[in-house]
């Protein structure tokens, strides 16, 4: 089973893949993360289900029929007997240039969730972000350092209070992990994407993650902070109770 500590290790493995690949556009950087979650779901749910994801099994995603459009989903749980998807899990890991896309990330999450949940399929979201992350210009020059702060979490606080039976745009559960990679870079010494990548390539053997806590989000809501075990239990029971 994937514990909180092992899940944190999967996040770190995805960050290491990102550093080696060198681009945030590649889906390959998320294979270690999605694959670990898919394997965990397969172990928990047993042989009555098939889990489709990159990084696990046949290394391919499945399509869930939405209310309005069909959607290729990061991790799909398929009931073997009926061959029908019974749940989907979407995972995103933001490692750079957050502010220019922050509203898009949230709006896209709400839109794709409504599309899937309106077709009566449970849908879960995982949002992972570095607490401090670089913001680059188009030429790769580092423009500034951004922080994911209390201000950024407000919309998730609002969502945590949603009644998911009323608001279909709200995921059945959302897991948020806010992490910082150690050793931290010396901000005065890093002025480009190239130097940022070089730093972490050199320090890969010493890298680890820490987590930032947001106590204003209460337990029991639609949003879970930095607790994979609680989140995956909710996924499991939602699927089994169908």
Set down the secondary structure blueprint.
Layout: H1 4-21, H2 31-45, E1 49-53, E2 62-64, E3 71-73, E4 75-79, E5 84-94, H3 102-117, E6 123-130, E7 132-136, E8 142-147, H4 150-160, E9 173-182, H5 193-202, E10 208-211, E11 223-225, H6 228-240
Parallel strand pairs: 5-6, 6-9, 9-11
Antiparallel strand pairs: 1-4, 2-3, 4-5, 7-8, 9-10
Tags for this model:
34% helix; seven-stranded mixed β-sheet; 6 helices; alpha/beta; two-stranded antiparallel ribbon; 26% strand; 242 residues
| Average pLDDT rating | 92
Q: Largest beta sheet, briefly?
A: 7 strands, mixed
Give unreliable regions as ranges. none
Shape label: globular
Distance between the termini: 22 Å
Task: Report the helical percentage.
Answer: 25-40%
Count of extended strands? 11
Order of helices and strands: HHEEEEEHEEEHEHEEH
- Rg from alpha-carbon coordinates: 18 Å
Percentage of β-strand residues:
25-35%
Provide a count of the helices.
6
Structural class, by secondary structure, is alpha/beta
How would you describe the overall organization of this protein?
With 242 residues, the chain is of the alpha/beta class. It has helices spanning 4-21, 31-45, 102-117, 150-160, 193-202, 228-240, and strands at residues 49-53, 62-64, 71-73, 75-79, 84-94, 123-130, 132-136, 142-147, 173-182, 208-211, 223-225. A hairpin with a 5-residue loop joins strand 7 and strand 8 (142-147).
